[in-house]
Amino acid sequence: MTDARSGGAPTVLRVVLGKRLQDLREKAGFSYQQAGRALDVTHATIRRMEKAEAGLKIPYVEKLLRTYGVTDHAEIDIFVSLAREANQPGWWHRYRDVLPDWFSAFVSLEGAASVIRAYEPHYVPGLLQTADYAHAVLRAGLPTASEEEIARGVALRMERQSLLTRRDAPLFWVVLDETVLRRPIGGPGVMRAQTARLIEACALPNVRLQIMEFSAGPHSAMYGPFHIFRFQIQELPDVVFTESLVGAAYFDERDDVSAYLEALDRMCAQAAPALSTEAILRGIHRGI
How far is the CA of 116 from the CAs of 163, 205, 226, 240, in angstroms? Predict the structure, then answer.
């Protein structure tokens, strides 16, 4: 588990390269301490590079590759080129004035995932929010923020949504608690527009929405919201994201991820089928 309350968030590419460096070190039979001595740095520096907790210094990368027995110049050049790219901030960096470090990691994972599954008991996920709904949610969560800060947060959220319509868009599969649709956020007009947006989203081939109706009773994930990210990149394991009032946690240990996957699978079986979601939404929309 990674507690992401502070510190700069890495790009997914930096995570991948860190894992590749770890694999090369382990295959070469080097300990953290031995690799550190090769660079004349502490073992903690090696560990932080592998865990993507620090930038990939190019001279360090080149020397580590040679230390681990990589002799092909073309392979080294490609790795170094990728390291330079990984050290560049993501597109969301320009929103750093309103984007916490712990959520930067979420945006990076979101953009690289091939499958995003989620449970939301409180509000519509950011990728499906209207601008007015997003404004109301952000204002409730940041009561002392300036209007400019709220507007920047909304702009970031709207830009993230292009993910769902790009050519290689991920599968976005969400279980929404009925509470999300019943809680009035921003007034009736905002809620009508938001439910209309969800109805439109049902037509997207890569979006699957299920409603956990009140009549379904208790379920296995009533403790809070979470996201599960899956990647086509071999080096990346599934990652679970959970959020709290002061930060977030990211889990990638197999047992932890399996617990969340099993809970979500049970919820998908318990929730109303995706084929009935549009009808449920239209019924709620008419009643607003």
Answer: 11, 14, 11, 10
Q: Which amino acid does the sequence have at 252?
A: D
Q: What angle do CA 185, 191, 195 make, to 5 degrees?
A: 130
Nearest alpha carbon to residue 6 among 229, 227, 244, 248? 248
Is 2's pLDDT higher than 70?
A: no
SS (H, E, C) 244-277: ECCEEEEECCHHHHHHHHHHHHHHHHHCCCHHHH
pLDDT digits 0-9 by tens, 220-250: 888 889 999 999 877 788 999 998 877 788 8
- Residues 217 and 215: their CA atoms lie apart, in Å, by 5
Q: Is the pLDDT of residue 54 over 90?
A: no
CA torsion, ordered 74, 9, 130, 245, to nearest 10 deg = 160
Please provide the size of the chain in residues: 288
Smallest CA-to-CA distance from 36 within 24, 46, 22, 50 is with: 46
pTM of the full predicted structure?
0.84
Q: Which residues have CB under 8 Å from 42's CB, separation 6+? A: 36
